[in-house]
Amino acid sequence: MDVTKPGAEDTCRLYLVTPTTAGPGFADTLARALDAGDVAAVQLRLKEAEDDAWRRAIDALRPVAQSRGVAFLLNDRADLVVATGCDGAHVGQTDMGAPEARKLLGNDLTLGVTCHDSRDLAMEAGEAGADYVAFGAFFPTTTKEAPTRADPALLAWWAELMELPCVAIGGITAANCAPLVQAGANFLAVVGAVWQHPDEPAAGVRAMNAAIAAAR
After folding, report:
1. Does residue 102 contact residue 128 with C-beta atoms inside 8 Å?
2. pTM given for the model
């Protein structure tokens, strides 16, 4: 995942988080979604899964993403990244700490850190070696219980003062993403807007990219 700041012509990109049921049979769905438009990264999120299930899903889905130039990241499981050939990990505030995750990943792989609505947590993540920080939730979401509600002004503040890229997450759809793009989010992380799209995930990717382009 290229986590350098996008240029003015490419100010925001799509970041897909898988549904928690995304096992090996999800590969064809993922392939169609990635072929539908620009996606920067896919984060595999399998809460409560055993290691064998993680490895089977990684073996099936990682090549789908990487063969298309899309970074393949693991939610929480920084301990599996190097051995399975993934591109990095994303950790939350109740998961593995950022310093420990960075040690496991080394210096070359991507580390993202959830920072909720906190400037302090985001700055701490940067000091711990994060390659990007994630803020949210910006809108109501049914994907997971969101302990905080973030405001687009946080993205604007971060984008103005910091070089570290930021990801916006939480209830983001094609209909409501414009303020986040305009505030300076480098990436929009979505789940339901793509995987639960009424016209299939590929249509969800197209709709999100069209909305991002329209908001610039």
Report:
1. yes
2. 0.94
Q: What is residue 204's three-state secondary structure?
A: helix
Buried b (16+ CB within 10 A) or exposed e, 176-192: ebebbbebbbbbbbbbb
* Cα angle 57, 61, 67; round to 5: 155
Q: What is the DSSP letter of 24?
A: G
H-helix segments, the chain:
27-34, 51-66, 78-84, 98-105, 119-127, 152-161, 178-183, 192-195, 201-215
- 84-106 pLDDT, tens digit each: 999 999 999 998 999 999 999 99
State the pLDDT at residue 108.
Answer: 97
Residues lower than pLDDT 50 in the chain: 4-9
**Which pLDDT belongs to residue 142?**
77
Q: Where are the domains of the chain?
A: 13-215
* Residue 168 in tokens: 């916006």
Q: Which one-letter DSSP state was computed for residue 26?
A: G
CATH number of the structural domain 13-215 = 3.20.20.70
Q: 193 and 175 in contact (C-beta within 8 Å)?
A: no
Helix, strand, or coil (residue 17): strand
Task: Determine the residue type at 36.
Answer: A
How far apart are alpha carbons 147 and 144 in whole angstroms?
A: 9
Query: How high is the pLDDT of residue 10?
Result: 53
**Which residue type, as a one-letter code, is found at position 190?**
V
Q: What is the pLDDT of residue 9?
A: 44
